[in-house]
Specification:
Number of strands: 9
Order of helices and strands: EEEEHEHEHEHEHEHH
CATH topology: Rossmann fold
Number of domains: 1
Structural class: alpha/beta
CATH architecture: 3-Layer(aba) Sandwich
Shape: globular
Distance between the termini: 21 Å
CATH superfamily: Alpha/Beta hydrolase fold, catalytic domain
Helix content: 25-40%
Strand content: 25-35%
Number of helices: 7
Length: about 240
Amino acid sequence: MKHLIILSLLLGGSLMTSAQSTQKAHIIDKVFSENIVVSHNYLLHVPKDKRHAINGKLPMIVFLHGAGERGDNIELLKVHGPPKKINNGEDLPFIVLSPQCKENTRWNPQTIKILIDQIVTDYPVDVKRIYLTGLSMGGYGTWDLAIKYPHKFAAIAPICGGSDVHAWDASMKLLDTPIWAFHGAMDEVVPVERTTRIIQALRKAGAKPKLTIYPDANHDSWTATYDNPELYEWFLEQSN
């Protein structure tokens, strides 16, 4: 994959910062003579806490937000998930990349993969420890991105999402990917079956994904998940 033009504009913070800096990427990427334009606002966190660095390289979490956080207001990303924790002063020991979808769009696996590759080029990311997670629309994005690029991520944690890919096809692509999926049993927005059918297909194929169903939760199964330190400990146990 060849980057023809790369424009990265830092709107706040320094290149290496323990807080979240707001940045904008505009990348024209050439793949087999096809120009693909990647244009995303995103938050980037580079931790002060380097205890999990290996040979100077840090683990990275890619966080995909839900439908309600789309648009041009980057502050919306700070209401849920890892960006919320960082905004509240927690120094997560990961580089955290949180891109933002434009209004009325959905996650495009190819463009997010290109953005990840650019962050890997610009920052000390351990490519063996890239983790992917997202909620609702971002849960769908997590499944779909991992299915398209199954060897890109050391582990994934989709929350209250699903996939438009047939569950059996998904299971074949993700047999070797550590997975911890989460959903609320009472979810009226994305039925819990959207997660369980993929997990069942994975288990039938011989994989051993983790699954947490919150029996009393409706659509918000992400607050409890991202507040649980065991998720981040589990991520750090996984490596390609």
